[in-house]
Specification:
The complex is a heterotrimer of chains A (about 500), B (about 300) and C (about 300). Chain B is built from 13 helices and no strands. Chain B is mainly α and about 300 residues long. The longest helix of chain B is centred in the middle third of the chain and has 36 residues. Chain C has a single domain, classed as Orthogonal Bundle (MetI-like fold), CATH 1.10.3720.10. Classes of the chains: A alpha+beta (about 500), B mainly alpha (about 300), C mainly alpha (about 300).
């Protein structure tokens, strides 16, 4: 019998210990806790293109310009600028801006940052996006000339994202590796500490030149499981969470503890290998577009909140052709096109997708079911990140799903995805190449739009992808905090404030 | 004694070398990370250069030799993904893993052993049936399911415990419980079956026949013998508890080694995978050395000193 | 006297086992349940013919029939793509049971053979086998399965082989331990002194006696493997879609854990029932097989 007693006393002790920790949630007014899907890989913006990493970086690092939702820019480190000619901008740098260690932000620092972005050993993943630029010339301590090889319309906007201004002396002292862990920037927040695997604590930089952010501290945490992030938002442990799938929204709203922001769109697309049969036939590719019931997928999986894409340029992006209508769901037409192409009974093929994408499995399965209805038997191939990418680059996919965010500036993604100089893994079209090269050089907005309309229409007809939809992703934000998400999806928290 | 220590040392060495080989070859066979390390528009020449620089073009055995000679000197290389020495990443996370493993083990033992003993002593009773059914429940719950359920109950509904992350004891409770549950079930069943066996042994019968109190019979004679297989299984499970907890770590955002190494496998981060597997193996060997020493204490009949 | 010793614990074993099994309540309940589960998984198309892969996006996340909003068209509701949960559970039983039992079988066969040789013959064979075992043992099980799947890809066959091969050591070690103990037992020594051949001793005296720990271990492992398959699915490395498995249903259903309880709970219950059945039967069998526990 005494064993019973012992057993219960142990249980009792455990319960007692548990009860000690009940209700230890601390009140916090100055601290903002942000939970993302993963913690950053490093904190050097020039070394990573991963969304969760860049989000933290944009709080530490500032760029010359603040990119806007209409693909224009506003001043940041650059106080004013003027166009000298189609190839040159003259940029005046704000006086009195300092890095977190007191180093001055000046023309030399900008030049250093620009040159560092192209440094081979850094392997900057954004190097390609900056490739249109030629050089930075220092005129005086606060004036620079930045030149491009050819006229480059989205230039300032691109600089606003991909050229963080970094401190030359500090980097010379500590080296690139150390800089990736203990960065010094000129943004609104400075790094206080990074406990890897647990949290990154940023403190407000009191000498920041711009508007003072409301929160003294921002804590970034990586919480991979969606259910856990939502739970943390509902219990008040997190103030802002990313990665909320559509079916979870109702619950967050119903809790009365948090609300949702509109945020960037994830634009998944289904690419086909146009170099090999059956997808080397444009009829087959169009048939695929008719065969997939995107309207229904949108309604069922995304509560109708997704935006169907007619062509490769998202309807929210500058330059999409507004006269294009999304391919309708028309299995009969798909079948007809297939038999015209010589596949009256359909064919067998493979569809690869990366397992780490959210809600991807169900989309892939729904797509496969639709294709089966027109006789195309699809073998699903879920791949982990590395394998997916390796096979992608080795041209081993037959069909594949990847995604991009639908940035307001078309050059940012259409160029990367369709110019054969960047990637010609599955599709190449010399005319599109030419137009893409042309489009980035036209400074007149209206004329520029016409070029992109042409690209949009051309690709719509040639159908190298099954054009899917833009899924508006959301952030969950606590009712105690006011924060409007950004179209680019980066968690730049300088605008967040406590609600009165 | 000296010979015994030498033998254990030799044991450690061949296990570690064997494991380093397996880890090395598996991760290298699964493709290299060069593509992942470069931007999408990298030229084939750039890819080749990086491959050359990282030594991936050498034959595997040469690469292994490079790795091994450096590893012996304590240099496990730099993580290709984090750009930080691999060993540093591991030592940062190991305390969290150990903490969780020990807590889970403790929870499992504290509940399972008393339950198992009771079930054995009162074989066929209500308690026996109940706890064994409970154990089966424990065995059939996937970690992530249990973890999410615990969060929904204790954090969201009751507001007692924090949802995730590492911190004080309050952060540890749910992950330890979720992780310890299947162990608990396993230990309870094992304790019961071993106790049943032991209780039927001659010396226990003798003890009973001598009129010793039931408590002493069970506590002293039976339990001590029943502990031997229990400790063995616990020792083997410890390896799993340290390295195999990726799911619990994912659900609770626990900064342990498990998620680190699984991510490293996904990223083909060779140095990190190799270093982690080695560290986990050494830990495992050490824990089991401890278990062996415990044997000697628990059962004087077993002696490692008189080797055949 | 000596002859009695040789024959008593082993020869009568198999004849007795069945008789004992029939006496054991838990074995009967477990056995009937297993038959029921396996029978259902084979025969369900005879009485329930709903395609487990047929999607109906407009009727997704329908609750089971007894809840408001449910219908007899889908007795256990539908999943996130409007597929019938009952038919997926039934169909999933085939894959899950196959993966669970086959992996354990692979591991048991490897483990028993290697353990027997290792323990009985000792010497060099023992050293080599046990060293390899040590290495496998110290290699974290989960990392081994994940790395192997990363190399081979995630088909059902690969999964079975990987799970089986990474798991043989536990069996081998247990077998070896039992064999070492049995070797010292009087009836084995006696058999030796009578000049019985090694193979015969192994088959007649040792093998039957190591079965009970193997069964106990095996039953627990089947459960572990069915669960572990769901863990692999959680990591995106389980049996690839569209084929449903209980594990993958659980892993995917967790995304809907608060909107659609039936998506995780029902396959979970199926797993639980199966594990319960296997374990009950295993316990009964264990009691029937273990000579020392017979008279309890």
């Amino acid at each position: 019998m005494s064993h019973w007693k012992k057993f219960w006393s142990v249980i009792g002790i455990i319960a007692l210990i548990l009860s000690l920790f009940v209700g230890t949630a601390t009140a916090k007014k100055d601290v903002l806790v942000v939970m993302q899907e993963a913690e950053p890989v490093g904190l050097d913006l020039m070394r990573s293109s991963i969304q969760t990493t860049m989000s933290v970086c944009y709080n530490i690092h500032d760029t010359l310009f603040a990119p806007q939702e209409d693909a224009s820019v506003k001043p940041r480190i650059a106080e004013s600028w003027e166009k000298v000619d189609d190839l040159t901008w003259k940029i005046h740098i704000r006086h009195g801006v300092t890095f977190h260690n007191g180093e001055p932000v000046n023309a030399q620092a900008v030049k250093f940052s620009f040159e560092r972005a192209f440094k081979d050993s850094l392997k900057n993943p954004h190097k390609g996006k900056l490739s249109a630029f030629k050089e930075v010339k220092v005129l005086d301590d606060y004036t620079i000339l930045i030149t491009t090889k050819e006229p480059y319309a989205p230039g300032l906007y691109i600089l606003g994202y991909y050229l963080p201004i970094v401190p030359p002396k500090y980097i010379a002292k500590v080296g690139d590796e150390e800089y990736n862990i203990h960065p010094i920037g000129c943004g609104p927040y400075k790094l206080e500490k990074w406990v890897r695997g647990e949290e990154i604590v940023l403190t407000r930089y009191e000498k920041y030149y711009g508007p003072k952010p409301a929160f003294k501290k921002i804590i970034f945490k990586g919480v991979p499981e969606e259910a856990s992030r939502i739970a943390a938002l509902l219990t008040g442990e997190a103030d802002v969470i990313s990665g909320v799938s559509i079916h979870q929204r109702k619950k967050i709203l119903a809790s009365g503890k948090a609300y949702l922001t509109n945020q960037m769109g994830v634009m998944p697309y289904l690419g086909m290998n146009t170099y090999k049969p059956p997808f080397n036939n444009v009829k087959v590719r169009r048939a695929m577009n008719y065969a997939i019931n995107r309207q229904l997928i949108n309604k069922a999986l995304f509560n109708g909140k997704a935006i169907l894409c007619p062509g490769p340029i998202s309807p929210r992006t500058f330059g999409h052709d507004p006269t294009l209508k999304p391919y309708p769901y028309d299995p009969a037409r798909a079948k007809k096109l297939l038999s015209e192409a010589g596949y009256p009974n359909g064919f067998e093929t493979r569809l690869a997708y990366p397992t780490y994408m959210s809600q991807i499995q169900e989309q892939a399965e729904a797509i496969a079911a639709d294709l089966a209805k027109v006789g195309v038997k699809v073998k699903l191939e879920p791949y982990e990140r590395a394998v997916m990418w390796q096979r992608y680059k080795a041209r081993k996919h037959a069909m594949y799903i990847y995604w991009w965010d639908d940035a307001p500036e078309p050059d940012r993604y259409v160029y990367s995805l369709f110019n054969s100089k960047v990637r010609d893994y599955y599709y190449k079209n010399p005319e599109v190449d030419k137009l893409l090269d042309l489009g980035r050089t036209i400074m007149d907005r209206k004329k520029r739009a016409e070029v992109y309309h042409k690209i949009d229409r051309m690709l719509y007809n040639d159908a190298p992808w099954v054009f899917l939809y833009v899924i508006p992703e959301v952030f969950g934000v606590s009712n105690k905090v006011e924060y409007h998400g950004r179209r680019d999806g980066f968690l730049d928290m300088r605008t967040a404030k406590p609600k009165p | 004694m000296g010979r015994y220590i030498l033998r254990r040392l030799w044991h450690t060495i061949y296990v570690v070398v064997g494991i380093s080989m397996i880890a090395f070859f598996f991760i290298h066979l699964s493709g290299d990370p060069v593509m992942l390390m470069l931007p999408a528009d990298a030229s084939t020449q750039e890819i080749e250069e990086l491959r050359q620089k990282l030594g991936f073009n050498d034959p595997l055995y040469v690469q292994y030799w490079h790795f091994a000679t450096k590893a012996v000197q304590g240099d496990f290389g730099e993580s290709l993904y984090y750009h930080v020495p691999a060993m540093e990443l591991i030592t940062e996370r190991l305390p969290a893993s150990l903490e969780l493993a020990v807590a889970a083990m403790l929870v499992a033992f504290l509940v399972a052993v008393p339950l198992g003993i009771l079930s054995a002593v009162k074989r066929g009773s209500f308690i026996d049936l109940g706890s064994m059914l409970g154990a089966l429940f424990g065995l059939s719950m996937p970690h992530f399911w249990l973890g999410i359920m615990l969060i929904l109950l204790f954090s969201v509904k009751l507001g007692w415990l924090p949802t995730s992350g590492r911190g004080g004891l309050s952060h540890l409770v749910m992950p330890a419980l979720a992780l310890g549950m299947s162990l608990m079930a396993m230990f309870a069943r094992l304790t019961r079956s071993v106790m049943l066996e032991v209780l039927n042994q001659d010396y226990v019968r003798t003890a009973r026949a001598k009129g010793l109190k039931e408590r002493i019979v069970i506590g002293k004679h039976a339990l001590k013998n029943a502990l031997i297989p229990l400790v063995t299984v616990a020792g083997m499970q410890f390896g799993f508890l340290i390295g195999g907890t990726v799911i619990i770590e994912t659900v609770f955002a626990w900064p342990g080694v498990g998620r680190l190494v699984v991510q490293a496998i996904f990223n083909r981060d060779y140095p990190l995978v190799q270093a982690t597997v080695l560290v986990l193996a050494v830990l495992f060997v050490l824990v089991n050395l401890l278990v062996d020493l415990l044997y000697v204490y628990l059962d004087p009949q077993i002696s490692y000193l008189e080797e055949k | 006297m000596i002859r009695d010793l040789i024959h008593s614990p082993t020869l009568r074993l198999w004849q007795d086992t069945f008789r004992e099994l029939k006496r054991s309540r838990s074995a009967i309940v477990g056995g009937v349940l297993i038959l029921l589960i396996v029978g259902t998984s084979i025969a369900f198309p005879l009485f329930y013919r709903v395609d487990p892969l047929a999607q109906d996006l407009m009727s997704r996340l329908m609750p089971p029939v007894w809840q408001s909003g449910g219908s007899w068209a889908h007795p256990l509701g539908t999943d996130n793509l409007g597929r019938d949960v009952l038919s997926r559970i039934l169909y999933g039983s085939r894959v899950s049971l196959m993966v669970g039992f086959s992996s354990v079988l692979v591991a048991e066969i490897m483990g028993i053979l290697l353990g027997l040789f290792s323990g009985y013959y000792g010497g060099k064979i023992d050293t080599v086998i046990m060293r390899v075992a040590d290495i496998f043992m110290a290699y974290p099980f989960m990392l081994l399965t994940i790395s192997v799947i990363a190399v081979l890809g995630n088909s059902i066959l690969n999964l079975i082989l990987v799970l089986g091969i990474s798991d043989w050591v536990t069996y081998a070690r247990t077998v070896r331990g039992s064999v070492l103990a049995l070797k010292e037992k009087e009836f084995v020594r006696a058999a030796h002194s009578l000049g019985t051949r090694n193979r015969t001793i192994l088959r007649r005296h040792i093998f039957p006696n190591i079965l009970s720990p193997m069964l106990v271990l095996g039953t627990v492992r089947v459960a572990n493997i069915i669960i572990w398959e769901s863990g692999l699915s959680f990591l995106g490395m389980g049996v690839p879609p569209p084929r449903p498995t209980w594990g993958r249903m659980l892993a995917e259903g967790r995304l809907y854990i608060t909107d659609a309880w039936w998506l995780v709970t029902l396959p979970g219950l199926a797993i639980m029932m199966t594990i319960l059945a296997i374990n009950l039967f295993g316990d009964g069998l264990r009691d029937a097989l273990d000579p020392r526990l017979r008279n309890v």
